[in-house]
UniProtKB/TrEMBL annotation:
Transmembrane regions: 43-61, 68-87, 93-111, 118-135, 147-170, 177-195
Superkingdom to which the source organism belongs: Bacteria
Species: Aquabacterium olei
Segment forming the signal sequence: 1-27
Protein name, per record: Urease accessory protein UreJ
Annotated keywords: Membrane, Signal, Transmembrane, Transmembrane helix
Length: 197
């Protein structure tokens, strides 16, 4: 192994470790949901943050470069569909546990980044996004600005996807153990969140 390999691996794993070291939070902590500012802040809960970064990382590594934006695009569209259902009053029992489980599954996706087909990976991305969206939509109180709130959390989501795309691009040529280590970190964080739901 040469020095450039370790440099590439370090560039990807150091930000990831810092992200995970920030602390494991409850899936959707008690913040407001009244408008743009709260919408921008909402995806910064650890569950959503890890999911968005994982989607970007997987997309950069598993999809052809010209199609890397498919993962984030699928996530955002499914997120909006779930949010619309949540705003309309749909409630699903165990949504918080399903969101934490999605982080575990994203860890599995990253650990097996070269084994999953694009269709299987994108299906997991879409299904997870629906539950994240349901939680977002369900939190909007009566009289709050739905458009500003939704716009805020979509914008933050896209920024996190771009961050993940950057990390995934830096790790694209990394050996499988690097991806397995990253996937294990994500999976462990998801399991800790699941234990606290």
């Amino acid at each position: 192994m040469n020095a450039s390999f370790f440099l590439r691996a370090r560039r990807g794993l150091i930000p990831l470790s810092m992200l995970l070291a920030a602390g494991v939070a409850q899936a959707h902590p008690g913040h407001g949901a009244h408008g743009l500012t709260e919408g921008l802040a909402h995806p910064l809960g650890l569950d959503h943050l890890l999911a968005m970064v994982a989607v970007g990382m997987w997309s950069a590594a598993a999809l052809p470069a010209r199609r890397a934006l498919m993962g984030p695009a699928v996530f955002v569209l499914a997120l909006l569909a779930g949010a619309a259902a949540g705003l309309a009053g749909l409630r699903v029992a165990g949504t918080e546990a399903l969101i934490a489980t999605s982080v575990v599954l994203f860890g599995v996706l990253l650990a097996g980044v070269r084994q999953w087909s694009a269709v299987a990976g994108l299906s997991l991305v879409a299904a997870s996004a629906v539950f994240h969206g349901l939680a977002h939509g369900a939190e909007l109180p009566v009289g709050a600005s739905a458009l500003a709130y939704v716009g805020g959390f979509v914008l933050s989501t896209l920024v996190l996807h771009v961050a993940g795309l950057g990390v995934g691009t830096a790790m694209r040529r990394a050996q499988l153990w690097t991806w397995r280590a990253a996937g294990s970190l994500f999976g462990a964080a998801g399991l800790l969140m699941l234990a606290r739901v």
